[in-house]
Amino acid sequence: MPKQPGKLFRDGDSAIAKICVDALTAAQTDRETAETFTHSFHSYPARLHPATARVLVELVGDGAKGPIVDPFCGSGTVLIEARANGLATIGSDLNPLAILVARAKTWTAPPRRRTQLREAGHMIAGAVLAAGKAARRSGAETAPLRKPKGFDPNSRDRRLAAWFAPHVRRELEDLATRIDEVATEDGDLAVVLLACLSAVLYKVSSRTSDTDSTWTERRIGRGQAARLFAQRVDYLVAGLADLSKVHAPLPVLHELDIRKLDTIIPDGTAAGIVTSPPYAGTYDYAEHQRLRFDFLALRHRELDAGELGSRRSFEADPPAARDAWRKALAGFVSKIGTALAPGRRAALVIGDSVAANRAIFALDDLRDALTGDLVIEAWASQERALLGQHERRAFGDQLKREHVVVLRRT
Predict the structure, then answer these.
(1) CATH value at residue 337
(2) Are residues 115 and 207 in the same domain?
(3) What tens digit of pLDDT does each residue of 263-292 get?
(4) Which of 18, 103, 132, 195 has the fewest other C-beta atoms within 10 Å?
């Protein structure tokens, strides 16, 4: 969301449009929400600002008698805010890492289970630290690297070797091996522990960030990975305790393409939808998170093939990608309309972008994609600064904007 003030535009029902403005400007005025609950547990590219999600969840969740749905749930921001409001929630995403992280961030299991999470995390970290000290003694054998089932060990090793110092890699592999051992007895707990490991991977790697694959030198001390892992476990447990104070069911999560939304949401049963679809030509989640996929042994072929609006698709064949994007947008808007209960609302956060040197005007594309049972109740847009010559050439004298659009099923 825009973090700097920009010119605002709005239309539609005045009260709803005002809420759309509040959602757009929340990232500039709300400095606290992003640090509540488990929001900052794990980095995630283009994450919806939690303050924006909070405003929109309160809007669409008013009077809800069914689940609030986020079909592009990412790392779970909307699900956290809906859960904090005591609402039933369902999230889906084609990205396996998204589902892993969202599951951990919304794991409001009973207190005894959270205690087990903390104890298991500290036991694993302590064992890894002890093993590292023992390995430095004269004559000690080097621990073997993991060989996840179904992954070629040599290919995996080549892909990972450049990103971690040898001692860091061994420490991380030991953490993962011990989480694998937990999985044989307690799969749910192991999933949450794996998300804690994922949260520290880039911090101890030579990758600059999620969205920047530039190699950068980092000096990581022995034992630092294990200590960071234990800290992430503690942080998550504390955030989950706060999130659990309001009674609500555990969010239901599905690794699923939105084009199959009707397989998990019966027609007309969603009490509300809050989501932020992909911005055309902007991100490549399959690339941004490949290091995590490789290390954590997450299968991602379906994401590689089915990621909507990816930057790589526009680079390969821009005209075909543009047509495919419009078709995909119409398809998932139709799915949203079908899933909503009559009279209920969907709030979408979308943004203008540049794809293959052409400006993409998201609000115009959304209007073109609307089905007969969906109407725009209100919208608000905020001007965003053009970044670099590339965007200035694409937009020319037209504005680039971020939008919040509220749809209602008739």
Answers:
(1) 3.40.50.150
(2) yes
(3) 999 999 999 999 999 999 998 988 889 999
(4) 18
339-358 residue pLDDT tens: 999 999 999 999 999 998 99
The torsion defined by the Cα of 96, 49, 57 and 364, in degrees rounded to 10, comes to -90
Distance CA 238, CA 38 (A): 8
**Residue 361 shares a structural domain with residue 399:** yes
Between CA 166 and CA 168 the distance in angstroms is 5
Residues 213 and 328 in one domain: no
Residue 279: C-alpha distances to residues 106, 195, 371 (Å): 25, 26, 20
Do 37 and 153 share a structural domain? no
Beta bridge partners of 375: 408
For residues 261 and 295, state if they share a domain. yes
Listed residue (66, 39, 92) closest to 263, CA to CA: 92
First to last CA, the chain: 29
Is residue 248 situated within a structural domain? Answer: no
CA 301 – CA 324 distance, rounded (Å): 19
Model confidence, pTM: 0.95
3-class SS at 342?
A: strand
Is 121 found in the same domain as 197? yes
Determine contact, residues 130/161, Cβ cutoff 8 Å: no
